[in-house]
Model the fold of this input.
Amino acid sequence: MKRLPVVPTILVLLAVAAMIALGVWQLQRKGWKEAKLALYARNVTLPPVAFPQIPVGDDLLYRRTSAFCLQPTRWRTEGAGGRGWRLIAECRTGAEGPGFAVELGLTRDVNFKPTWQGGKVTGVIAPAPSHQSLIAGLTRPAPMTLMIIADTPLPGLVASPRPSPQAIPNNHLAYAVQWFIFAALALGIYAIALRRRLRTDGALLVRGGRRR
Done:
């Protein structure tokens, strides 16, 4: 009697089940991403809002906003790819309060020394740069921090690109299809290998019977 190889079959079925589960998860992520993109697109059309006192969460992303910087307490730069460096000011808003961050333009000089002493800034709410590692982001994601992308750059800087939800990719459907294709290919390849093995075993049994 021809038998299926137990261990390889179990391993292949487990792998296929995992691929299908990942495909279903990507479909769920697709729905979540579409809802977020719809929210962000609506935010673009809404009137300006005061910058949140607790800049956590993403419900206000891409809304226009304004805030008053009493004094920059720290300057930092973040890489902007081929555009150079993003210049970001950490601002104080009063004796109490969390303050806020504002990106005031782009420069190709990482040692650029700003002379800005604060004032009113207007712009668009965007995610602040995060330095959390990929593994940490998957296991224990940090809360999102928001910042302002200023409309008007400081003298000597180039205006930062205005953030837009249209730049956010939504590739979850393609990822889901890929996982389902991988699952089908794994089953197909294993079925072909199994069929060849069973044929070989059958031929050996027939030859052995004839010799007897």
Notes: Helices lie at 6-45, 134-139, 172-211. The chain is about 40% helix and 20% strand. The first strand starts at residue 49 and ends at 50.
